[in-house]
Amino acid sequence: MTGPDLIMVLAWCGAIFGPLICFIAIRRLFVSRRFRMGWGLATISLLFWALGVWAFLVEPATLTVRHVTVESAEWTGAPLRIGIISDTHVAAPHTDVARVERLVARMNDERPDIVLLLGDYAGGHLAQGERSSTENAKILAGVAAFSGLDSTHGTWAVLGNHDSWFDDATVAAALQQAGIPVMDNRARRIDRPDGAFWVTGLADMHASDQPPLIGDTLRQVTDDAPVLMMTHWPDPFAEVPDRVALTLAGHTHCGQVVFPVVGRLIHASRLSERWPCGLYNEGGRQLFVTGGVGVSILPVRFRAPPEIVILTLRAKP
After folding, report:
1. In sequence order, what are the beta bridge partners of 246?
2. Mutual orientation of helices 3-31 and 35-53 as an angle, nearest 10°?
3. 18-27, 179-188, 223-232: lowest mean pLDDT where?
C-alpha cells in the first residue's frame, strides 16, 4: 500500500469513526458539568471533521468546468474554443479509468474546436518497471480513454514529469495509438477556413531524451499564422517570445491546497509561485495555467477544485 493510499484509508476511518470518538470525549465533559469546554470542543471538532472530509474525500472527486475568454493581439481569424485537460494522474487516489471516461464525455458536451492535453497522465512517482502489471495497465487504459475526445481540429498532447518518471516513451506510444499526436518540441499547422493557426508543444523538463526547446520548436513555424504553445510546466513561459499568441500550462494543481489569508503553502516548481493558476499577461505575452484534475503527493484538494477548461481565444479589438 502506497503512502497516499494509506492516507485515504485513514481519511475514511476519520470520516466514519471521528464523530463517534468526539462524541465520547465531549460527553465526558458534559457529564462532569464542564459545559463551556464541552461546547467549545464540540464546535472545533465538528469544524475540523467537516474540513477534513471535504478536503480529502469530497473536493478531489468534484469537477468544475471553467470557462475563460482571452483576447490576444497575436490572434487572427475567428475565435477558437480550446478544451484543456491536464494532470489526470491515473492510479493516484481519486482518478481511475472510469473518471477519465467521464471527463471525456463532459468535454465532448462542451463541443470544443480543439482539445489540448497538458501532461501527467500517470499518477505516482514510480517507474513503470517498479509497478504492478495491474497498475501499469490502469495508467495506459486511462491514456487510451482520451481517444473518445471529439473536436473539429483534433486532440493534441505533451508529456509531463510524472509521465517521464513512469516511462515517457511508453506514454507517448499510448497517446499515438489513441490517435493523439505528441507535440514535444514540435509544431503543426492547422488549416481552417476562418483562420489557420499553429499548435506547438514543449518537451517535459524531466524528459529522458530532450529538454524543452522553444527556439527549435518555433523555427518549425513557417508562416505568420498565430501560434499556440503547450507546455506541462509554466516555467518555460519566461522564455516564450511575443510571437506566441497564448501559452497553456498545467502542473501546478493551483497549489492543491489554498488556505484563506495564508494562500498556497507549496509550489510545484520555481516559477509556479509566480504563475500558480489562471491567466497572466506580461507585456502582452499571455499564459493560462490550469489546475488540472488529479492529485499528487497527498490525496487532498482544498479550495483548488479539479477542473477542465473551455478557453475561448479571440483577437484583440
Report:
1. 228
2. 160
3. 18-27
Provide the grid cell at 135.
497498475
Kindly report, residue by residue over 158-169, the tens digit of the pLDDT: 999 999 999 999
Is 284 in contact with 297 (CB distance < 8 Å)? no
Task: For residues 84 and 53, state if they share a domain.
Answer: no
Tell me the whole-structure pTM to 2 decimals: 0.91
The answer, yes or no, to whether residue 178 has pLDDT greater than 80, is: yes
Q: Are residues 18 and 120 located together in one domain of the fold?
A: no
pLDDT above 70 covers what percent of the chain? 86
The domain in which residue 18 lies consists of: 3-59
